[in-house]
């Protein structure tokens, strides 16, 4: 178990050694540690080796010049100049928040970015000023649309954070597939089978092989099969891809350049404008009084928590609740880092002449 | 088989007889016939008897005074004054489109409305002026959140319409559950079993009874069970409920007053502000050149259609494609109306002294 502060300063020092500014190293560590605290370790320190790999290949710039390419009073298009997603993402979400201050809502499409960690982080930036925050991103093509043998879409997560009054906020943050790539990686690392309904083999047949992605297989869309609505998961993932990447001019669908060694690129990289994100901010009081809204959100949350649970379950879970509880617990008791992640991080520490974890 | 024009004039005359204005009767018939043409008959003429029932109960007003309660340059809150959803919906979507003309995007939350037919209709209103259209609505509480015995959410559909260039537009329009209430009703009417993964019984156990909704059962969220991501379907449906109803001040979650006789009301109606919708419009050129965007949407669509299909399937289907093909076919060959719907409509025709279909 490691304390939040201890791991945070490790991450900051590592990115400082890689030519990131102090401010940017702070942002990166903040987002990665938020994932660890919230129990989403698949988007935490585990990802650092991937980032360092892309930095060394020149695919991520340590000192990007992030630019606003075009804007209206409620929108903007941002070019991330191959920066790491956390830096680009925080810039863009702040811009969306600012626009909503003046005209009620703000919407920012981003191109030329990279993996940004947990989408929930950006959506939650809206909460303190009584706004609804929205964040989404496209990603490595790993998900096969309904009826396709080929993976054309990412696990493309959506996060929506909504303020409440006395209750804790509603924070939904989910991949638009039954399972995230990170969770499959962990299952595969532990030699576990995947439940049927997560992946298909290279011919589109059902599979329970958690390592199928490196063998031409693909993740299924949310819904699993056509009869159970996989076309709806496919729609949802497509919407995230189009908002994040077609609207911004980033690589979309099968053209996304994989950031993982085990995925071969499906199509020629047609433009090279990184991956894309999409951020939104809506001021509650652009619709109605924030006080009334938050009182009703409390009622919404309470009426869901008071619903009769199925046998064996304590209650209906409000989106964001398990993550918040994990955050409180880990802040107090410390963060566990798996052996394999520790090994990788310590190799990196050695390489950059840093004290090992 | 009946021609589009024949059915349209039947619907117009019926609503004229019920004190709707000519303009409004035209809008209602337009939305209902769009559903029939697009092959979504569960949202077409089949719904008319429900609307007439609610009109007679005084829950729908034929001549509502639709009002803008609050607005900013990019947002508005609209009160539908218990109008039928099509009339209120079209008013609100037009307002969203207008706002996006001036500030890039427009977002309208609506309360005090009723069933609005197919969400896709409103989203598609954005296409002709190179905008992305978004429409969603909450509905009768029929869906049980993950771990709940009780149904607290509607099948809460989302529609997103995105323009393309030479290709036809992308139009996703889907309930956030594996099955819509309408399709279950049809299965039940035909004495068909539902596939497992659609519904649960009153104790939250798996069921294949398509008539379970009238016996205390519930529809499952998209994903089916917790292991396969039902919590993501639950999140999605919740977001639609909160955007449509908490943001607007409509009845939300379990407080929605059912429009169906077979559903008992779960909670006291706390406010009586009907159901809620949420509409959005984003001008493509508020982000980048509409020409470039549409060229890339063509490439997006083509690369999905060219993906290798699984055995037994012709190709990957682009959202909106089957509905568009149905529209062309039915416009030419006519629209089929089921015996049971015909019977109900002819009873209504008789009552209002109209020529039977």
Summarize the structure.
The structure is a homodimer of 357-residue chains. In chain A, 37% of the residues lie in helices and 14% in strands.
Structure description:
The structure is a homodimer. Chain A contains 10 helices and 10 strands. The first copy, chain A, is globular and about 50 Å long. Chain A has 3 domains: about 100 residues, Orthogonal Bundle (Hypothetical Oxidoreductase Yiak, Chain: A, domain 1), CATH 1.10.1530; about 190 residues, 2-Layer Sandwich (Ribosomal Protein S8, Chain: A, domain 1); about 35 residues, Wheat Germ Agglutinin (Isolectin 2), domain 1 (2-Layer Sandwich). Chain A is α+β, with helices and mostly antiparallel strands. In chain A, the strands form 2 sheets. Chain A has a 7-stranded mixed beta sheet. In chain A, strands 8-7-9 form a 3-stranded antiparallel beta sheet, with no helix packed on it. In chain A, a hairpin with a 7-residue loop joins strand 5 and strand 6. Chains A and B meet through strand 2, strand 3, strand 6, helix 7 and helix 8 of A and strand 2, strand 3, strand 6, helix 7 and helix 8 of B.
